[in-house]
Amino acid sequence: MKSLVLTIGALCLMLVGAQAQVSYGLKAGLNLAKYSEPIEEGLKDYEKNLPSFYVTGFADIPVATNFSVQPGLSLQGKGAKYEGEFEGVKGSININVMSLEIPVNAVYYIPAGTGNVFLGAGPYIGFNLSGKIKSKVDGGEDAGEETEDIKFSGDDKNMERIDAGLNFMLGYKLSNGFLINGGYNLGLTNLSTENDFKASNRVFSVGIGFQF
């Protein structure tokens, strides 16, 4: 964690001294989220991608020919979903977490057609702001819904607040600034508060945006 924070800090300091034409952008889209391991033993076969969203504002700072660094601020919907039939009873568990992230990506542009293909990667640090666990049973004597707030602090917390990891992205930027992009968010932090259990974020994303 410390090395990741130091890496982000070093990149930001480098950007302060960069003498370049800075542009800004906004992008948004769909997240398909899950965890590296199910929240409970036996749920692996019922694991689904949880649909959510993201909104990201960023600065694009050229540091060399066709190469930029993009620091940003991003609101990310993450979590996991489990759905299926167990012992004749259908049900689902949805875990929805809203996180505020600070990514710093290195981006390389490849001229293609009327625009540029771009490839990017870099670290991020995130802060879980809020979350809920919604359980639903569709049949039997336990039929019904139950919603529980996720606690990120205190003696009874059930998820860690701080998240960190790596971003990877691929997309196309048109000459007018319109963006089409996809990405993958690889969490490296164990979010579980259980000593014998580990769970990290895994998120695929697709979206559009505009760079001014």
Question: In summary, what is this structure?
Answer:
This is Outer membrane protein beta-barrel domain-containing protein. The chain is mainly β. The protein has one helix and ten strands, in the order H-E-E-E-E-E-E-E-E-E-E.
In words, what does this structure look like?
The chain is mainly beta. An 8-stranded antiparallel beta barrel has the order 1-3-4-5-6-8-9-10. Strand 5 (89-112) and strand 6 (115-137) form a beta hairpin. It is built from 1 helix and 10 strands, in the order H-E-E-E-E-E-E-E-E-E-E. The chain has one helix at residues 2-16, and strands spanning 23-35, 47-48, 50-64, 67-86, 89-112, 115-137, 144-149, 162-174, 178-187, 201-211. The protein has a single domain (2-100, 116-211), classed as Porin (Beta Barrel), CATH 2.40.160.
Distance between the termini: 33 Å
Alpha carbon gyration radius: 19 Å
CATH architecture: Beta Barrel
**In total, how many beta strands?**
10
Structural class: mainly beta
* Helix coverage percent: under 10%
Which band does the percent of strand residues land in? over 45%
Q: Please write the CATH class name.
A: Mainly Beta
Task: Tell me the number of structural domains.
Answer: 1
